[in-house]
């Protein structure tokens, strides 16, 4: 296609595109850790997800000018219908950028040197749109862009803003004393108390073995906590289930490049907390964190872990810490905890494009009908 003197094509990504893909992400103002080749590799292989990522290539200069990470997953993947009626589930899928199971961000990225970026965006949107219509099983697209610079491009290409997600960004590019002054007073006191109690925070030096320890001792603990908190509600528990293969790919792909790091909190020789973070450009993203409860409840391990990440991140030249999402209810404990570190609230638009609205309504009716039948049968077995 001739576009303003440029001969460009839009196509599916190839393994040979890795270096140039990452260059576009690095240079683009919309590029985040969650756009990188490595993260998308983790998602595709670790979650066994169907990738539909595309690129735009300038054929004359033989280089990429735009990238778009995109995945396809079953709409009812986290519901019982996926387990008992896979034929129904397989016929209803969603396209998502980022992947819909984990905290992350998506949408296309274009090199800032490209003057006709709206046309580049349109090429990528049209490519995925054509694929979705031909496949016929895709009901919706869900896109959460980290930066508002994509808002107009999404609307121009048929997406509707359906809501807002929130996160908080802690500025760590200041003197540590100034950073700490912004915390809730109780948080500062708790961090000092935790340090005086002798809790040690250290980075894993053997992530190949320690990722197993993390999964078996901490991730499974988190799942048990979700089960307890939700009364073993299937879809809420299933949504929290992240397979071991995902952590294997973190270990194999991200840890060797220091794009992910694992920290432990130890008290009296016992590992009482663990935290996995992601690192890219000037920003740290909180990844996965779990702490032991019960007798260790009053140690304030979570606060000390985050404080350590701030100190370590500042030392290594990072400027921001993304707390990885805020609960929509400002009175919720998670929201109150994360905002205690004096982060700046950032709003992220949620965009949707529907393909089979009437069919999805029909599918939900079928799902609820089968779910009710399953519940009745399970009650008979008791």
Describe, in plain words, how this protein is organized in 3D.
42% of the residues lie in helices and 25% in strands. The strands form two sheets. Strands 3-6-7-9-16-10-15-14-13-12-11 form an eleven-stranded mixed beta sheet, with helices on both faces. It has a five-stranded antiparallel beta sheet with strand order 1-2-4-5-8. The chain is globular, with a radius of gyration of 22 Å. The longest helix is centred in the last third of the chain and has 25 residues, at 357-381. The protein has helices at residues 18-27, 37-46, 80-84, 86-90, 117-135, 151-156, 176-181, 185-196, 207-230, 234-240, 244-254, 301-315, 333-339, 357-381, and strands spanning 2-3, 6-12, 50-51, 54-58, 63-68, 71-74, 93-97, 109-110, 138-143, 160-171, 200-203, 260-267, 270-280, 283-291, 320-322, 344-354. The protein folds into two domains: 2-166 and 349-381, Aminopeptidase (3-Layer(aba) Sandwich); 173-318, Aminopeptidase, CATH 3.40.630.30. It is of the alpha+beta class. The N and C termini lie far apart (64 Å).
Quick structural summary:
This is BioF2-like acetyltransferase domain-containing protein. The chain is α+β, with helices and mostly antiparallel strands.
List the SSEs and their pairings.
Blueprint: E1 2-3, E2 6-12, H1 18-27, H2 37-46, E3 50-51, E4 54-58, E5 63-68, E6 71-74, H3 80-84, H4 86-90, E7 93-97, E8 109-110, H5 117-135, E9 138-143, H6 151-156, E10 160-171, H7 176-181, H8 185-196, E11 200-203, H9 207-230, H10 234-240, H11 244-254, E12 260-267, E13 270-280, E14 283-291, H12 301-315, E15 320-322, H13 333-339, E16 344-354, H14 357-381
């Amino acid at each position: 296609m001739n576009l303003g003197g440029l001969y460009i094509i839009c196509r599916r990504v190839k393994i040979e595109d890795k270096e140039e893909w990452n260059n576009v992400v690095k240079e683009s103002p919309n590029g985040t850790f969650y756009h990188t080749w490595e993260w998308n590799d983790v998602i595709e292989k670790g979650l066994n997800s169907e990738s539909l990522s595309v690129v735009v290539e300038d054929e004359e200069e033989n280089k990429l000018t735009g990238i778009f990470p995109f995945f396809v997953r079953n709409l009812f993947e986290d519901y019982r219908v996926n387990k008992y009626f896979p034929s129904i589930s397989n016929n209803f899928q969603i396209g998502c950028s980022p992947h819909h199971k984990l905290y992350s961000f998506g949408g296309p990225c274009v090199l800032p040197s490209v003057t006709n970026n709206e046309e580049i965006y349109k090429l990528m949107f049209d490519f995925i749109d054509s694929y979705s219509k031909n496949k016929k099983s895709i009901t919706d697209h869900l896109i959460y862009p980290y930066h508002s610079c994509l808002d107009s491009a999404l609307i121009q290409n048929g997406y509707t803003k359906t809501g807002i997600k929130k996160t908080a960004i802690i500025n760590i590019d200041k003197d540590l004393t100034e950073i700490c002054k912004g915390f809730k007073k109780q948080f500062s006191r708790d961090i000092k108390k935790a340090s005086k109690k002798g809790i040690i925070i250290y980075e894993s030096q053997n992530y190949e073995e320690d990722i197993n320890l993390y999964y078996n001792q901490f991730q499974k603990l988190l799942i048990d906590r979700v089960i307890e908190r939700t009364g073993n509600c299937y879809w809420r528990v299933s949504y929290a289930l992240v397979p071991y293969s995902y952590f294997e790919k973190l270990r194999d792909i991200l840890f060797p490049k220091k794009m992910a790091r694992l920290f432990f909190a130890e008290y009296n020789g016992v590992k009482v907390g663990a935290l996995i973070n992601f690192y890219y450009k000037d920003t740290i993203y909180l990844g996965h964190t779990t702490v032991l409860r019960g007798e260790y409840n009053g140690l304030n391990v979570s606060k000390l872990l985050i404080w350590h990440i701030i100190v370590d991140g500042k030392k290594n030249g990072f400027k921001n810490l993304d707390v990885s999402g805020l609960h929509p209810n400002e009175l919720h404990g998670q929201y109150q905890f994360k905002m205690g570190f004096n982060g700046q609230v950032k709003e992220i638009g949620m965009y949707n494009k529907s393909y089979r609205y009437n069919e999805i309504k029909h599918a939900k009716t079928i799902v609820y009908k089968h779910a009710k039948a399953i519940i009745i049968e399970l009650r008979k077995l008791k």
